[in-house]
User: What shape does this take?
Amino acid sequence: MRFKISKRRFYQALSTAARAISANSPIPALSGILIEANFDSISLTASDADISIRLKINQSEDKDFEIFDPGSIVIEAKYILEIVRKIDAQEIEVDNVDGSLTLFKGNASEFKINGTKSSDYPDIDFSKPESSFTLASDLFLKMVVQTTFATSDRETRPVLNGVNMRNENGVLECVATDSFRLAKKNLPCSFDGSFNITIPAKSLNEIAKTVDKVNEVEIAVNDKKAQFLLGDTLIQTRLIDGVYPETSRLLPAEYTNEIEMDSRDLLNAIDRASFIKSDGISIIRLQISGQQMIISSKSQEVGSSKEELSNFTYRGEAMEISFSGHYVYEAIRALESAQILIKFSGEMRPFVIFSKEDDSVLQLVLPVRTYN
Assistant: This one.
């Protein structure tokens, strides 16, 4: 294998592929990037067994690579990224000189690195699932931002480590929960059939780092995997096994109290109150009536805070409710809305936060029982 390629383009491609590399891979070959040079393109493959990336470098109008001899090799990701980054040249020549020994050369710089034969690299099935649909990249990115933060980071219930995607009647319902909060985003879906899958939040966040480079995302799914086609980059992820909990029952059937206000005012007030923590957790108390809203927090070890807010509209009887400041702060921030609605169905029942500008998304938070 021997080829010459633009350093900038090669490094960008390697950086994208390396996102699938795990520092603690159980399979030694998966710590490397598989490089395959064909007569008209260069393919890079990387995987950690959960998420896999295959990136194809096609010839551009600038003719920024030239292949002299086709072939393939696996090079340790941490070495090849450092080598390509540090070589001070516009073009880099890659030459498999002797079995697994590979030369990287640019101007006066030259590195020889021992790689691994491509035959030792695990065979990854990149076959495309039959069910596929497309989403605008900005909608996909917004879905990731507005849901993944609410997934669980605990291993006790693996199914809660992902975002559940359910398609019915042309609507893609995306739900994330860690049992204490819930994020839900609905998207229009061009796929006529139905499916119900759970994708790891880690995979979705990695995909989001690449999605802004294309206008739309093609998504193909079956009961084992999901593929995301982003231009010349294919990202494939395993699904999480298990039945996702029926979250629709968490949503209140009716609401008795409602606040409408500027999201920034509430975010700033919660942020100011949240530095007071008990056992590392910030519990915020909201007291509200028709004319008065008070945000407060207290801790026997630290002290207390109290702030009165104005510029809000309230409908309902006077009430008090306590909640995690961190959960509500993240929920409001994820809505990306200037004006929000908070609807309550009781002081010890879940409350829901809506965007005034976007009715396709909602955030639900469970209250916390406190004792004066």
In short: The mean pLDDT is 93.
